[in-house]
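Lab manual, section 2.4: Encoding a predicted structure.

Procedure: take the sequence of the chain (318 residues), apply the prediction step described in section 2.3, and record the output as structure tokens. A sample record is shown.
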Amino acid sequence: MWYSLTTSPHVRFFTVHLVLAALNQIRIAVYESNKKGGARGKRAFLCGVTYKKQKRELRGTAQDVKNMRELLVGQFCYPTESILILAEEESYRPPTRKNIEYGFQWLMKGIQPGDSLVFYFSGHGLRQRNLNGDEVDGFDETICPVDFETNGMIVDDDINETIVRPLIPGVTLHGIFDSCHSGTILDLPSVYNISTGKWDDHSPPSGTYKGTSGGKAIGFSACEDYQLAADTSALSQEKEYTGAMTCTFIKAIKEAHDNKQKITYRGLLDSMHQTLKQGHKSGGGLFAGIRRVFHHRILQDPQLSSSEEFNTSKEFKL
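Recorded output:
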């Protein structure tokens, strides 16, 4: 999740380090176990990168993936056979660049009207100078596979081209990113402004089309493009580290369900903001862990983006 040369080691950030040589040789077609790309209707690709044995190994990503899978199966009725997981645990395929690219193919293969897709990423995120003029802030956002040092990062342009542009009418993709600098990682043209309650135009200055082929793409990101994202153990009953954004995302949805209430997109975003803000200000209790992680310097602002403007009072569904 993350990159900074000055921030606390408790914040997810990466430091360049050689990955295990063996990982560079692994080439697994992650969709070969299901050539048709999973069951019709609902399909999810979950990716958690721990960067084991690297200097700045992440502590929360493995738990993030487990928690997200539990949410999708238990809350939104995703079939277990329609969820693909890449992680560094032995029972899963490793999240190399090649495998993540295969995972994108698996997610999009044979999409049909009525399909609901989810891509979730928990890991390091970076920025790099944009050279083609399609970024408002002049930077491309990236996600880092486990082998990013040898095989490169995956930039927002490629993510948009692979899992946003192909979306046909009747298909909805939710991209959920718990990583640094992830605000506009899907390169979607509309970004919700929580202060004004309106959508801001984030279309590329170059005029490049970044929308879909008639479907809908919605993104939830851990923070703005210039911000870092944090780990915390404060929201876990077992005190296990997870991404702060993932914790607040799941917490808001489960609380609404437990209270037999529906949650809207705006309500979900508001809840995430409030929980993180409270954790940043609190000196103890439930949110003390977030306070320690932030060290009074980092307050991340979760972001909502979309391929098209919509009424955020609409019920949130996956």
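Check your result against the sample. The first helix runs from residue 21 to 25.
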